[in-house]
Structures are given as C-alpha cells and as structure tokens.
Design brief:
The protein has helices at residues 63-73, 120-125; strands at 8-13, 16-21, 37-46, 52-61, 78-79, 89-90, 98-104, 110-116, 160-165, 177-178, 188-195, 200-208, 217-225, 233-234, 246-252, 258-264, 275-281, 292-293, 303-310, 316-323, 329-335, 349-353, 359-365, 371-383, 386-395. β13 (217-225) and β14 form a beta hairpin. Strands 5-22-21-20-19 form a 5-stranded antiparallel β-sheet, with no helix packed on it. The longest helix is centred in the first third of the chain and has 11 residues, at 63-73. It has 398 residues and is mainly beta. The chain is built from 2 helices and 25 strands. It binds calcium ion (3 copies).
Length: 398
C-alpha cells in the first residue's frame, strides 16, 4: 500500500498504527492474530497541517490457506538436465483446487487442465465415499455444477476441463475458466489437441466416464475452436473398453495417419500397475488399430501420462511420468530408436524429479521445448482431508 503525502504520515490499519515519513513504505500484517473472514484494511494519512485522506482495501483472511502457500513456497522439484532447461516456477493461475491433466498447445498459448475443487489425493488415499466429498472440498468452484447428481449427494464429485489463453508466450497465464466441455455428473478430463492454426484445432482428444462402466474412455473432436463444446465422439470400440483408457496424447503424422498414446491401470496385457499403450489410425480417425502395450517403456511400476514430442531435428521423444528411485513420481523421456516404430524407445532419461515436493508429472511441451508440468505438494501438519495439492508449473528451455 503506497501513501503519498507531505512530510508526515500516520496509517491506521485495523488495530495497528504505523508512523512513516513521506516516502513509500511497506507493512507486514501477521493475520494469525485475526479470525478468518472478510476484513477491511483502512489506510488514513495526515499531514502536519491536519489534511486527511484515506483508502480502504477489502481482503479475506484465510490463515489455513496462507499456511498452504507458505508450505508450497518451501518445496521445489529438481531439474535433472540443467544444461537444457532453466529454473522451474509455479504458474500464477493455480488455486487450492486440484489442477491435473495438463496440456499446453504447441504454440504455448492455450492451457487446459482437469479440475476438481478438492484435495483429490486425500480423497483417493482415504478411499472415501462420495457422500463425504464435502469434507475434501477446497479451492474455487470455477462455476462447476456440484449440485446435479444421481445419488442425492451434495456436493457431487466429478471432474471438468478448465481452459486458459494468453496472447503471447512472454506473458503468464493469469486465470482458468470453466471450458465448454464441462458437463454435470460425469468426469471429463485429459484434454490434448493438434492445432490447425491459432484459432482452430485439427483434432482433439479427451476423456469421459459417461459410459456403462463409468471408467474413462477416449473421445475426440475434429476441426473445432480452442475451447470446443460438448462430448465429441467415442474414439473406437477397439480402443475404448470397459477397462480404463486415460490421459490420451494425439499426434498427426500426415494427412491420413494419426497416433494416440494413452495409459491404463487395468487393461489385460499390462506389464504392471499403470502402463502406456498406443493405437494408430491409417484413415484420419475413421478406424483405429488394436492398442499395443508400449513394452519398451513399461515396467511393473507406474508409467503413465504419455506426451510425444518431435524436436527440431525431427527426432521423436516420449515424455512420461514414472516412479523414480526415491519412490516418488518423476518426469522421464526416451528417444525413439526406429522411425515409425512407436514401441522402440531407448533408455529412459530423467528430466525432472520431485525434489522436496511429493511428486511431479503431466509433462506437456511447446514447439520451442518449454515444459508445463504438475507439482504435487504435501503440507506438514495437514488434516486427513486437507494435506495435498497439485499446481501447474513451468520449466523454460534454455
Ligand atoms: Ca492447486
Ligand atoms: Ca464433469
Ligand atoms: Ca507399469
């Protein structure tokens, strides 16, 4: 707060008084002595002949959330390739909800996430029931419909896709909005797209559990705006089964050939736990081949969240999340050994490890090679319903 006045200024803010000279000044307000809720900060300035002016700033005191942001500030992931990448940093559009399933378009201007206004990890770890969702709710509701539900339960747990846009890669993303793909009751997430141009998506994939098994299937759109509307079309019965198909990544190889990578924790043929799979289409998405387990990458531990990236020399890499030697999820990549063979990946190379955070994942790269990724935090001293959060971060390429 800046006060410009002559000679001498007194500022009265709630229950404290600051005397300052005519220069700008800062004051740190320790809110832990305050109850949570709406407050007004009043700043009044006097000069030595009795003139007075004042300014009021409405704020909300939330000491638990303040402790959360302090906990996040004390944790950081570790970049394993410092010659290639710069210093990672949090994106300013994060909130105390669960931003997951990140995808950044290759031009770096459109960011998507799968969102739940809750401590989603605590809910998962506790294997709690949907009628206990209210215990975990946290963060902005983002306009989601948490009311409509088939079970008489409020609020209703589901996932929606959020969308953010920026006009240039040199400015930050400032806020997410609820995307036009948001739907009541069911979970939609895992958005990924190939751009036709800055305003149009050539083809986009995402997931929904609006099906008979309530496990995620892959759906797609063709020739839609950056923020498409509706549920799209189911990819193919060859790909979508009563098991889980999640976190799809799509690439166009030429006018007719497409490839989709995805992950599953329960498809028959999995090497173990979460595995990565792929399918291809020779006819621009009309038909798809039977999915193949990416056995050159998969192990008995978790491999998931695949992201394909072609560097400036035309070399394909598979970026993905997997369990690291510290037991936490980390981001790895592998180089394609045989052009055109989507199951010929070389040794895995660590890109980012969790460091002092709980884990990292969801890598998504711009054409320039900058990475957006997810960081998961644990707050020491949290409750069984409020101790984890996930936020989107950036890792600039040097
Ligand atoms: Ca968050
Ligand atoms: Ca939904
Ligand atoms: Ca596995």
């Amino acid at each position: 707060m800046k006060i410009f006045s002559a000679l001498l200024v007194f500022v009265f803010c709630l229950n404290f008084t600051v005397r300052a000279d005519w220069k700008d000044f800062d004051y740190t307000w320790d809110t832990t002595s305050q109850t949570d809720g709406a407050k007004n900060i009043l700043a009044a300035a006097y000069d030595d002949v009795g003139n007075r002016t004042e300014s009021t700033l409405p704020v909300t005191v939330d000491n638990a959330q303040a402790a959360w942001w302090a906990a996040k500030d004390s944790q950081a992931p570790v970049v394993a390739l410092p010659a290639e990448f710069g210093t990672p940093y949090p994106q300013p559009l994060a909130n105390m909800g669960w931003e997951d399933g990140l995808f950044l378009t290759r031009d770096g201007l459109n960011l998507y996430c799968s969102y739940i206004p809750a401590d989603y990890l605590s809910f998962t770890i506790n294997a709690d029931t949907l009628d206990h969702y209210y215990l975990y709710q946290r963060g902005s509701v983002m306009g989601m419909d948490l009311v409509t539900n088939p079970a008489g339960s409020f609020p209703w747990f589901h996932v929606d896709i959020l969308y953010a846009h920026r006009n240039s890669a040199s400015e930050p993303f400032t806020s997410f909005q609820l995307s036009n793909m948001a739907r009541s009751v069911y979970a939609e997430g895992g958005f990924c797209a190939v751009q036709a141009n800055s305003a149009l998506l050539d083809i986009a994939v995402f997931t929904s559990n609006d099906n008979s098994s309530f496990k995620t299937d892959i759906r797609y759109f063709m020739n839609v705006p950056n923020n498409p509307t509706g549920l799209g079309t189911s990819l193919s019965a060859v790909v979508n089964t009563d098991d889980t198909e999640d976190n799809p990544h799509i690439e166009r190889l030429d006018a007719n050939n497409l490839v989709v990578f995805f992950d599953s924790n329960d498809r028959p043929g999995n090497v173990g736990m979460l595995d990565i799979w792929y399918t291809t289409s020779p006819d621009n998405g009309t038909t798809w081949t039977a999915p193949v387990n990416v056995s050159s990458v998969n192990t008995v531990n978790d491999e998931h969240q695949p992201h394909l990236y072609k560097d400036k020399t035309g070399q394909w890499f598979l970026y993905y999340s997997a369990t690291h030697t510290d037991g936490k999820l980390a981001i790895f990549r592998a180089r394609q050994l045989t052009p055109g063979n989507w199951n010929s990946w070389g040794p895995k190379e660590l890109v980012v490890s969790a460091g002092t955070t709980l884990g990292v994942g969801e890598p998504t790269l711009t054409e320039n090679g900058d990475i957006s990724f997810l960081v998961v935090f644990k707050k020491t001293g949290g409750t069984a319903y409020d101790q984890y959060d996930a936020d989107p971060w950036f890792l600039p390429k040097k």
